[in-house]
Fold:
Amino acid sequence: MTLSLIAACSLIKPVETSVDKQTRARTLANEGKHADAARAYAELAADIPADHDSYELLSAEQWVAAGDVPAAKQALAAVSADARSKLPASRALVAAEIAVAENDGAAAIRELDSIGVPASGDLAQNYWLLRGQGAFLTGHPVEGTRAFIERERFLPDPAGLAASRKELFNRIRDAAERRQLLKIPPNLDPVVAGWLQLGPVALELQRDPMHAAAALENWRRMFPQHPANDSVLELARSQIAVATEFPDQIALLLPLSGRAEAVGVAVRDGFIAAYLEQDPASRPRLRIYDVAAESVAGAYQQAIQDGAGFVVGPLTKEDVAAIVPLSAGRMPVLALNFLADGVNSPRNFYQFALLPEDEARIVARRLAADGKLRGVALVPDGEWGNRVSAAFADELTRLGGAVVDVGRYESGRADFSDVIKQTMQIHGVKGEPSTHRSDAVFVFVAGTPGAERLLVSQLKFHFAGDVPAYSTSDSFEPDPGANGDLDGLFFPDMPWMVSADPVTGRIRDAVRGAWPARTARRDRLYAFGFDAYRLVPALRSNGLNGSSEISGVTGKLRLDDHNRIRRDLQWSQMKGGAPNPL
Structure:
């Protein structure tokens, strides 16, 4: 009987008390398990009505940390109206966090303006952080810098101070990239002025580290006592060192004759442009091999015999696949295309490519992040359209969305009315505006710039212009006279094509000066070659491990688990025939 009672008792699960749940929620948050912590706080909100609002706010805060803004907004919406008077600071700070996560700086500032500056350390440092982030998001870098400096008074440890200064450095750099730092006000506090003057230096470090050392030293002479000297500049110096440590000799394998000659020459010229940016005294030896004039295997073996310490290329998928069995991990290789999915690459074999499928996935991720989960696609007939459509649909489905219909058009045509009407389910009565399907909150449009101009303008003609249109960078080529038809279109592209920052502009001008006869249609290939050169020292030193990245002229570059270079692009919307950064 006793044994039976013991067995029965062992099956009874101990009841978790409120204190236990609080401890569990805090532990999950401290361990970085923010989604689980958010759910734990939501349980506490349901269990303890007297503290419901406090726990819902904590839940919303953890959802923001987890990157799930819709869940955070739902948790905030569950907070009672009384919280504005009973928990004004906590509620406003959480609402401001959500606004910052949505890149809505104006909304964040409005929330913060509704309360006074908190007196306690944690709330105060969070207040000034959000105020700084909001100011930078609204294009006010002076106010943003002042807020970050004010925040430092409430940071209790050196690690927190270093992290705050690093974020300020990054915010200043992004402001410089957007050309917000046009003029420093007179009589500005020297610490604030020093941070603002650091913006162009930070941008130089990001885009063109070959020139950054001199800019960094000039800034240090101007501001020898500035607090950035003891923190972010040491990191900057180490980044310069990593970015400029090349092997003694590089081999570049490209098709410089035959059917792929034009593409290979453009990539080569971009690569050489980056090479010429480097101080002549520290440049590696560069040997270039035409893999169209000899076998790619022969060129690779010759490069090894000639003393190459790093191989860049080849370019075509066939050639990339051909050198995989030859490399065997002995020599670092940066192939300028991707191997087929499922093909394992050797150690030290890296892959870099400009693929429309990757961009289609970037568009899908943007739509999912914006909460636009259902829509239609208009893609060209043929293999290119199939690849782009499949990649887009696959990524959107993975993120919980759906492509409800796909319209395929003939690229050579000028009138796409039939496919637009069918895909958008456009109906109309004579004399009245047409209507379209209501289950599509976006249109993904893929194709050449000429086809895109026709498609976007014809969507508007058929009264479907109210549905936001998204595309890949293939839709855009600089042509202010023709791109007015694309107004309203959202698309991602590389900084080389859409950025107005002075460093990228200088690099573009250098390439155009060196090769004035280049074809504008191949601009992205010059940028591709430029970034391929910049990747060599980063890959050679394992500088792209973990969460690190390079801010190249083709995008922010990072290395995935399969040794593929992935790009994050800049988003723009066409306005007045020109791309406007988002």
